[in-house]
Amino acid sequence: MNVYLLLKNSDFNLDDLTEEEIEPLNSDLSLDIIFKAMAKGDDVIYGAVRKVMFRYLTDSSEITYRQEILNDAFAKPKEFKKLYEIASEALDATKKQDYWLNSQILTTRFQSAVSVLEGFIPFLQELRKFADQNKNAFSSYGMNRLLSEIKEEIDDDFIRKAKDLVSELEFKDGMLLGLTFDNDASLAGYQLLRKTSEDNKIKWKMAPKVTLAVNDESGMEDISDRTNLALSQSVDTLTEAAGNVKDFLFRLQTEIGFYIGVLNLTDTLKEKNVSYCMPLISDSTMKKRHIAGLSEATVVLSGENAVHNDIDSEGKSLYIITGANQGGKSTFLRSIGQAQMMAQSGCIVMAQSFESHVVSGIFTHFSKLEDRTMKSGKLDEELLRMSGIADRIRSNALILFNESFQSTNEREGSEICREIVNALVEDGIEVFFVTHFFTFAENVLEHMKDESVFLKAERMSGGQRTFKIVPGLPEETAYGRDLYDSIF
């Protein structure tokens, strides 16, 4: 059976994340606080939401498919949690047998596989019952297809045959073995026969019975060898069957777990009176951002007062963010990256409304603290990171720069920024750039004004910061004097 709750017609990649997939997005965008809010202490959900978020979608139809299932989760949260509970309890109930399924001892593997299948049966019955009870409960194609498949595959006949097979494979009254022969009529081995089949019922009744003495070691060894030869023909099939059921339940638990994570997050946002919405994402070739009331996760989830920012633009490739130090620029930049990842994961976004085009990839280049272990200077390290991004970034991607290349002087830093940004924009890449280089910002204003949006950290006349990002042209000062006066 297929789950297909994260992708329309294929299995979602549930392999462990690689370091390249996680960093630097995780640290630059402070994503872990979102994952923990979604998980609420559940390790399975934590793992699920991380994989889904870092492996965000780049196809708007797949995003819509996921959003439709999420709408079902909003409408029927108890039912989604019940599905998650069934899968989780089934996996927990058979967890002790996992180690023995890989045993080198054939009889141990065989018995473990039988135990696993026996343990799964009541939970498969629960799934069938769930599907029957909720046949008209959901509106999404994904959920209805899953329930239809469960009803088709786990019918009464399947349950009856599964119970009968497990009962027979426990060999409570013995094991029926058949002989196999080579072409020359020499004995080739043994095979396990079903005692309940019509052909074998008489054979079982007429099979010779041998009683061994307790201390007959050679006899016991002979029986063990014959048994192993017979089981070797079927143990792989049996363990594969147990593994297939386990894989289905694991995938169901993980994929449903993502939607439970979104429900958990929305519950937290409601408690904190933080706005959220279902984003509108399109494959439009025109870049567009219509965003109202956008919040940043680390602020709202840590209990601080949320600051809401807006963007309303179409056909713009470059956003230059300047203005006062400690005025909310980095926070705003993180909120853009967080929202785009969440939107393209089929998740809600922490905003009153959010409309955007699909980006082909999300990249960050944030200024890092000086590391004494660096083999070269900070500028070399920044350029090396940029080179790595250039190898992977593609047209229609999104990249966020946070005070990059500040380790050099104004003239040199501005020239580096100008060359990099020009190349990226020419390649169809969307750029958000927080900078204190006035020369760079002024150059963009002079040569790239039509394709750019200029934003700044709002500063009141008395030097107070509102931490909002508002439209505004670049200024030569970052108002560092305000910070000096406030401290000294």
Description:
The protein is elongated and about 100 Å long. Helices cover 51% and strands 14% of the residues. The protein starts with 18 loop residues before the first helix and ends with a helix. Strand 8 (362-366), helix 15 (378-392) and strand 9 form a beta-alpha-beta unit. The protein has helices at 19-22, 25-28, 32-39, 43-54, 60-75, 77-93, 106-133, 141-153, 156-169, 198-206, 217-231, 235-271, 297-301, 329-343, 378-392, 410-426, 438-447, 480-487, and strands spanning 176-181, 187-193, 280-282, 288-294, 309-314, 318-323, 353-357, 362-366, 398-402, 430-434, 452-459, 465-471. It is of the alpha/beta class and 488 residues long. The protein has 18 helices and twelve strands. The longest helix is centred in the middle third of the chain and has 37 residues, at 235-271. The protein folds into two domains: 57-271, no CATH class; 276-487, P-loop containing nucleotide triphosphate hydrolases (Rossmann fold). 37% of the residues are buried. The strands form three sheets. A six-stranded mixed β-sheet has the order 8-9-10-6-11-12, sandwiched between helices.
What structural keywords apply?
six-stranded mixed beta sheet; 18 helices; Rossmann fold; 2 domains; alpha/beta; four-stranded mixed beta sheet; 488 residues
Number of helices: 18
Q: Let me know the largest β-sheet.
A: 6 strands, mixed
Shape: elongated
Number of separate structural domains: 2
Q: What's the helix-strand series?
A: HHHHHHHHHEEHHHEEHEEHEEHEHEHEEH
The first-to-last residue Cα distance is 68 Å
* Mean pLDDT level: 88
Give the uncertain stretches in residue-range form: 480-485
User: Which secondary-structure class do the elements indicate?
Assistant: alpha/beta
Beta strand %:
5-15%
Number of strands: 12
User: How would you write the strand order of the largest sheet?
Assistant: 8-9-10-6-11-12
Radius of gyration: 31 Å
